């Protein structure tokens, strides 16, 4: 029963811990013989997806952040260009529709007014097709789109979105593998690798949830602070954005995310001993770049909190705390790293005593403009 908190204190906490099962549900029936079961997306999905040359994602809030992660995947995995825009901006500007462009609305509720308005506008603007990745089967977005890919996260009650985000990303990886194959941009081996990584993800997230206590201890350092900076590069930049959004929403601490390479262009001026800086830094091609950004912060007396894996080679020292997570597949790692960062915000909010499930001034679905 979705309304039953079970052993959990808050819906948000329950929904964080439900993510392994939620992702298993997202994957259920969508994989066949080590490949994406494209027909399970929609009976005519293969025909549409094979023609896609451009993807336009439109969303709000956490769903927008999921779109920002997916943009990296569309260009790297599916091999199609991709733009992502906040729905309230997209709907009020003049835009040029690219040839064979697929519009994707991303939404937990399927009822966000701006996203729905953007879909209606796009349908009159020459998009090849309008797809929604959505959590609510009976929603307006699902009804009005050409086809829907349901996230199956289950009912999400906490206003701050958690499992809706990670299941949206799971759908996005499936979609990318499908488009990549249909367009000949992805080898069979690469598709198998993505699928295997997705299948391993629920158990890996279980192993991240084990860090709950360690993250709770870390959260004590943040509760008295007024600001927090989140840094990442590549797909971890939008993961930093989502982490900053979570912290703002539920703890009321001002938080900002920056692409780590932008540090020098402004935020470095903010760094002092009162400024916690959270960095998402797993071992990958960009790690050396991230490490030099970390040094820039350290040299100015910033307090660093680094979420990484053992291969990244970080150790705790003065003003430098690490959460060393298990090494996971690179393709699914952005989804994996989301979870410990959700826990960080959750524990900071607990110390601050805010209404975690129903933060002030916010609504679960923004159905009016
Ligand atoms: C509100 C919610 C957020 C959500 C956003 C978009 O701001 O509080 O959690 O991310 O709306 O909602 P949607 O249902 O379209 O994903």
UniProtKB/TrEMBL annotation:
The keyword Cytoplasm applies. Residues 45-185, 218-359 form the SIS domain. The active site is at 364 (for fru-6p isomerization activity). Its EC number is 2.6.1.16. It is found in: Cytoplasm. It comes from the Bacteria. It catalyses: D-fructose 6-phosphate + L-glutamine = D-glucosamine 6-phosphate + L-glutamate. It is an enzyme of class 2 (transferase). Keywords: Aminotransferase, Cytoplasm, Glutamine amidotransferase, Repeat, Transferase. Its main location: cytoplasm. Homodimer. Catalyzes the first step in hexosamine metabolism, converting fructose-6P into glucosamine-6P using glutamine as a nitrogen source. This is Glutamine--fructose-6-phosphate aminotransferase [isomerizing]. It comes from Basfia succiniciproducens. The chain holds residues 242 to 610 of 610 of the full protein.
């Amino acid at each position: 029963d979705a309304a039953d908190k079970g052993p959990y204190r808050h819906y948000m906490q329950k929904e964080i811990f439900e993510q392994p099962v939620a992702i298993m549900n997202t994957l259920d029936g969508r994989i066949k013989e080590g490949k994406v079961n494209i027909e399970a997306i929609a009976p005519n999905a293969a025909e549409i997806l094979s023609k896609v040359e451009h993807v336009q994602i439109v969303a709000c809030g956490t769903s927008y952040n999921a779109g920002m992660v997916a943009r990296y995947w569309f260009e790297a995995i599916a091999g199609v260009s991709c733009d992502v825009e906040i729905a309230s901006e997209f709907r009020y500007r003049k835009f040029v529709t690219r040839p064979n462009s697929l519009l994707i609305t991303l939404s937990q509720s399927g009822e966000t007014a701006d996203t729905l308005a953007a879909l209606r506008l796009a349908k009159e603007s020459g998009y090849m097709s309008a797809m929604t990745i959505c959590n609510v089967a009976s929603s307006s977005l699902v009804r009005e789109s050409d086809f829907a890919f349901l996230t199956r996260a289950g009912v999400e009650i906490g206003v701050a979105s958690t499992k809706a985000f990670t299941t949206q990303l799971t759908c996005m990886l499936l979609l990318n593998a499908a488009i990549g194959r249909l367009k000949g941009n992805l080898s069979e081996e690469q598709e198998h690798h993505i699928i295997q990584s997705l299948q391993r993800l629920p158990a890996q997230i279980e192993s991240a949830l084990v860090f709950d206590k360690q993250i709770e201890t870390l959260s004590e350092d943040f509760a008295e602070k007024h600001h927090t900076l989140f840094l990442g590069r590549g797909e971890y930049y939008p993961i930093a954005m989502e982490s900053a959004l979570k912290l703002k929403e539920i703890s009321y601490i001002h938080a900002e995310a920056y692409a780590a390479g932008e540090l020098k262009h402004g935020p470095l001026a903010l760094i002092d001993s009162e400024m916690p800086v959270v960095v998402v830094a797993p071992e990958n091609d960009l790690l050396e770049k991230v490490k030099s950004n970390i040094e820039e912060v350290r040299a100015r007396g910033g307090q660093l909190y680094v979420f990484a894996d053992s291969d990244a080679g970080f150790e705790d020292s003065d003003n430098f705390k690490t959460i060393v997570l298990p090494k996971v597949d690179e393709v699914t790692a952005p989804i994996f790293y989301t979870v410990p960062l959700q826990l960080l915000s959750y524990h900071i909010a607990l110390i601050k005593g805010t209404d975690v499930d129903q933060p002030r001034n916010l609504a679960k679905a923004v159905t009016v403009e």
